Amino acid sequence: MQPRAMGFGQGAGFLRDGLRLWRERPRLMLLGLVPAIFVTILVVAALVALVMKADDLIGWATPFADDWNETVRDLFRAVLYVLVLLGAGMLSVVTFTGLTLAVGDPFYEKIWKEVELSLGGDVPDHGVGWLRGALDGLVLVLTGIATAIMVFLIGLLPIVGAVVAAALGLVVAGRVLAAELVSRPLEARGMDRAARKELLAEHPWAMLGFGVCVQACFLIPFGGILVMPAAVAGATYLAREALDRAASGDIVVAPVPPAPPVPPPS
């Protein structure tokens, strides 16, 4: 059984719906600023420290280049500097999301619950809980580290490496963010990882559209502070739409293939 898939534009539209709540429910959305501001201060401080020490770090990591031609050495280390900052940027976005969801679970549960109530239907009594949210946040941070390493390694490719790494990092990080954000309202309904994966696998383009838009907004300085509450709300809209489509008659039932013939006994 496969529900009709939502497209990239529909996924992006769920973030727009979440942003609209800033006009419709400003007090509710302001709750989401508290953990976002706190985590932003930590992440920005770490990024500033990295920028200040990146030259020394790269010089320490590349002693083999000390005897190179000065122009070649400086160009090589400049490319590494850009890649380190690019990877750190991707890591900071995913880390920001993971830490913010872990620290601010009570705040974002309130936003999620209000969106659920506005949509009607069956609404879970409670969210995933702080401990579960913290564990999910840790997994997200570890995934972000793996993404940053991937971006760095791809960026080492000559000529097109930096461009490909930036584009791929945006897509991969966007998918990771979308999966984590959308999993919250689904997990609150008792859906395990396999069930969530099966449901969301029917809407890959919607997940990509939503995640890439969230990721792009997070790359804007301090954009994550304002967008994080909207992303939580938008993810709830996306999850509910996926559930409604799966529960509706808008499905195609795949025919069951006939069983193979039983060979005669020898």
TrEMBL record:
It is found in: Membrane. Its main location: membrane. Keywords: Amino-acid biosynthesis, Cell inner membrane, Cell membrane, Membrane, Sulfate transport, Transmembrane, Transmembrane helix, Transport. Pfam families: EI24 (PF07264). It is a multi-pass membrane protein. One of its GO terms (biological process) is sulfate assimilation. GO terms for molecular function: high-affinity sulfate:proton symporter activity. The chain crosses the membrane at residues 28-52, 78-103, 138-157, 204-228. One of its GO terms (cellular component) is plasma membrane. This is EI24 domain-containing protein.
